[in-house]
Write a structure and sequence with these properties.
Layout (H helix, E strand, L loop, with lengths): L1 H18 L14 H12 L9 E3 L4 E10 L5 H18 L4 E9 L4 H13 L4 E4 L7 H11 L3 E4 L5 H4 L5 E5 L2 H13 L13 E7 L5 H15 L5 E8 L4 H15 L5 E4 L2 H13 L9 E3 L5 H9 L4 E4 L2 H16 L7 E3 L3 E4 L1
Parallel strand pairs: 2-3, 2-4, 4-5, 5-6, 6-12, 7-8, 7-9, 9-10
Antiparallel strand pairs: 1-2, 11-13
Helix pairs in contact: 1-11, 2-12, 3-12, 4-5, 7-8, 9-10
Bound molecules: beta-D-glucopyranose.
Amino acid sequence: MKKFLVLLLSLVMLTTLLAGCGGKKEKPTDSGNTTTDDTAKDNDAKDDTKDDTTKDDPATGSKTVKVGITIYKFDDNFMTLYREELERYFKEELSNDEVTYEVTVVDGKNDQAEQTNQIQTFIADKYDVIIANLVQSSSASTVINMCKDANIPVIFINREPTAEDLDLWDKVAYVGADARQSGTMQGEIIYDLKDHGDLNGDGKVSYVMVIGDPENVDAQYRTEFSVKALTDKGIEVEELVAQRGDWDQAKGQEIVAAALTQYGDAIEVVFCNNDAMALGARQAIESAGRKVGEDIYLVGVDALDEVVACVQSGEITGTVLNDHNGQAHTAAVVAIKAVNGEALDKNYTVDYVKVTK
Ligand code: BGC
């Protein structure tokens, strides 16, 4: 699986290299999780448990399953790739003569009240399963209780609810990735450099941390584990700035521009909790006349196409693939399992993969 991803990633790198660093965004490439795909087909094949709410068409014998998806906000680079793949996968790869997945995707607009209403509407409209990328993970228990009352399974994606919340009902699961792994990989990318990130040779790595949305465990773990990977290896570190950028490119740029003005050459490493913010940081670094790889290092997470191209051209030191294809496929498969009344695990995780030149 990992080898397959790495191979595919090289292909992605090649195509994006042609597009150039920061070039036009391309359609996501299918990094395909074959195990997941196979499971999906198996599930389709044994999809014989008729749910109360699924619609049968007596004329064709085919069944329609209504899938309601709510995304915390459409205006997020990573979640855009994720939702497009999720929708495509249900419609183009999982729908067949026997079952049609009717998919509705709505924009939570970064507003939990709005998103809770959307989920209520899915429930009122008798959707068969709900896939939720919550605005606030802390609303998971409310959402689970609403879905439980209506007996509609709910699969959380990307923003992990607490274990306690997941235990509230057996038709609930979380599909995501272990953010500790991505943080550790960011730290390792820096450690693996010949100077371990200590560009000025003063015996410590002085860094700026650009944080996502701090309510989100992805932000918490990446912040903690990127630095821990260095300190675990005996590297001394110094935090110059740590500030929330809410996963946002413009905010990433502002934070890093201000940090560069304040600390100048003292900054050796910029850690960004995601690639959107790393793209912003790259612009700030360039405007300040600094050069990644020569007098500063920069790492992100996600492996957006633009960032992979920047890694290839040396404008970003490294990133970590947050496998939106693998996660989208797993989420779809788990949703189908839930519709079919199969027992669910609480957590389904997809591995991250380190991306360097
Ligand atoms: C991704 C970010 C994204 C966030 C949204 C994270 O896992 O790395 O790019 O903005 O999820 O919740």
